[in-house]
Amino acid sequence: MFSLFDAHIDGELGPLGNGLLTPRRFRKVVRHSRNCHRCAALYERSIRVLRQLEHRSPWEPAQLELEALTSLNGPGVGAKVSRPSVGTALVGLALAAAVALLVFTPGGGDELAVRGAPTAVPVALRIFCGGRGAPLSELKEGAACTAGQSLAFAVGAAPAFSKVVVLVRGPSTDEASVSATVNAQVGAEEAVALTAALERAGEVEVVAAFAGDELSAAAAARGEKSSGALVLKRIVKVAP
Question: Are strands 230-239 and 144-146 parallel, antiparallel or unpaired?
Answer without folding.
Answer: parallel
